[in-house]
Every structure is written in C-alpha cells, then in structure tokens.
Amino acid sequence: MSDARVVIMLSLLLGIQPVSTDLYLPTLPAISASLGSPAAQTQLTLSALLLAFGTSQLLWGPLSDRFGRRPILLAGLAAYVLCAFASAFVPGIEWLIAARVGQGIALGAPVMCGRAIVRDLYPPASGARVMSRALTGLGVLACLSAPLGALVAEIFGWRAALAVTGVFGLGLWVLVWRRFEESLAHPDPAALALPRLLPGWLSIVRHPEFRAYALLASASYCGLFVILAVSSFVFIGELGLGRQQYGLVLLSNAIAYIGGTILCRRLLHRMSVARAVAVGGLMALAGGLGLLAVAASGARVPLALMLPIWCYMVAHGVSQPCGQTGAIAPFPRAAGTASALSGCLMMALAFGVGAWVGSRFSDPIAALSWGVATCSVCIALVAWGLVPRAVARAAT
C-alpha cells in the first residue's frame, strides 16, 4: 500500500472512535429526557463503551498477531455495525448501555489494528510522523462528527444520530474488504498460547518505554474524556447553548487538536520525540491550570472556558502521536499485543477518571475544570520525568 493509502486508512480506522463518541454527544440531554434517565446514567453510555473498548483490545491484540490485521478488522467492524444499529432502536436506557457496550467491544478491533499497522510498516521515528498525519485525519472526522450529530438529531432525533455511526462502520467495512492489504508480514502461530500470553504481557508492561509512553497517551486521553463526558452538561445545561452551538464548540476543539498534530510533525522534524513530548507537557499544564483558574474566578462565559480547553487540545495533538507510537515501538514482533495493552490502559484510566469526576463533583463546571487540570499535571509529570528516564535507559 502507498503511504497515502495507509494514512487515509489509518485516519478512518482510528477516526471511528470519535465518530462513536463525538457524534452523539450533542444528544445526551435529549437521551436523558426521552428515556427518563438521570445525567449520570446517560453518561454511562459513553464511559461503559470506552471501558468495553479498552478491555476488548486485550483479546483483539493477540488475535491480530496470530491471524493478521485484515481478518480481525473485518470481524470487528461487522460486529460494530450490528451493535450500532441496535443502539438506535433500544426501548430503554439499560438496553442502550448494553448496545453501546457491544459497540465498544467491537470498536477495539479497528482502533487497535490501526496502531499496530503503523508498527508493521514503519520504524519508530517515521511511525510517529505517519501517526500524526493519521491523527490529523482523525481530527477532521471529529470536526465533522459533533456538528453532524447535532444536525441529524435536530431533524430526525437522537436515534438517527446513533444510526449514523452504523452507516460509517458499514462503509469502513467495505473499504477494508476492497482496499486493505495485510500489513503483518509474519503472523505469530504462538500468539494465543496461554503459557506465553501472560508472560508476554508482563514483559511488555515492565518495559520502561512502554510504561512512559503509554501513561503519557493515557493521561492525555483522560483529559479529553473529561471534556467529552462533561462538556455537554456545561455548555448546554449550565451556559444555555443550543445543540448546534454546542456542536460548534466540539468543532473548535477538533480544529485545535488538528493544529496540535500539525505542530507535532513540525516538532519531530526539529527535535527528538522526548523533547516534543516535553513541549506538549508544558502546553497541557498551561491549559489545565488555566481552565481551573477561569472556573475558580466564577466566569460563566463560553469563550473564557474554551480558550484554555483549546490550549489543552493542541497539547493533546502533540502527546497522542508520540505516546501511541512510542509505547509500541520496542515490540515489532508483538505490535498488536502492545497496542492492545496501551489501549486497555488508556480506556481503563479514562473510565476511572470519569467515575471520579462523576462522583466527586455535583457542579459540571467544577468537574470539567478539576478533571482536566488533574490530567494536565499528570501529563507534565510523565513528559518531564518518566519519558526522559525511559529514553536514557534505552540508550544505555
């Protein structure tokens, strides 16, 4: 496959995650009203999807190392389509949560394979640049998802917005079937052997570079998760924006993220991955603490809250390409398993942060600001501490 086809395919495979989340975020208040569920239970349709998404990768990863990326992609996307359409016809919130859990399990296959494909085809330094290009494409999908979801929900209702995720999944299945060429040159026949599976996981988790970069990507994603889970209740519920206006808020976040991925590529042309990560850590800290300061001042103006969030999203665009590729780089023969462990850690921590924010703060603005600020501090600590030490150990 040409580099252009790889980047396009990766953008769509990785972009199915924001399609699964961002597209229906403007409908959360409408779902609560329609199904008679409290906000915390409605938010579970997002956090449960992400937890299922993370844990399922522990199975998808070894399966893809054993059988190759292509069959796992086709199987996972087929299951995703079925669960996505099922979520559009549920009679109650419990059924919706169950359908979203199934969708999350299936979602693990394309996203995990997307990260592994980068390691299959490229060395670490080139892989980080390719990943940043693919994540720019992801950002474009995120830009389109929220406004499209708001528009579809406004015209046809929230069920139609959930059905759109199934349409996207079906189109991606057809594209993979027609255009994707297997990227794993040598599948591992012993990848699923139980005596090897657990020791293999432990050896990956013990690797200092894996821990540093996986924690970096996870901490950065946790801040994004807080924004996704809470922002609709802040901007629609507290600040009185309409669904279309909130869609524009998410659009602006995605544009800031795209800017971050472009900045990441420019940084990587001038400096090492570790130094680029340090720059991202500084920007994340500025955004998180800035948001906390705005919330503490009592400001209730959307723009005042958005400015530090944009700063955080730019930093997220720097941290994610470096973190995702850095965690997998030391494991060319087990890229699927390493990708799965990194993704599982990311989603498990995001679920924990979401539960902490939901139980600790009754005020959505306080939940948003404290959640993002806490994650930004963690990003800075990892970027300035764990990553340099891991790189130094690898060099010796």
Explain the overall architecture.
This protein has 14 helices and no strands. With 396 residues, the chain is mainly α. The protein has a single domain (3-179, 196-395), classed as Up-down Bundle (Growth Hormone, Chain: A). Helix 4 runs antiparallel to helix 7 and helix 11 runs antiparallel to helix 14 (364-395). It starts with a helix and ends with a helix.
Mean pLDDT across the residues is 87
Which regions contain 5 or more consecutive residues with pLDDT less than 50?
Answer: none
- By CATH reckoning, the class would read Mainly Alpha
Q: Tally of extended strands?
A: 0
| Assigned CATH architecture | Up-down Bundle
- Helix amount: over 70%
In CATH terms, the superfamily is MFS general substrate transporter like domains
Which labels suit this protein?
globular, 86% helix, 14 helices, mainly alpha, Growth Hormone, Chain: A, 396 residues, 0% strand
Question: Would you summarize the structure shown here?
Answer:
By secondary structure, the protein is mainly α. It is 86% helix and 0% strand. It is built from 14 helices and no strands.
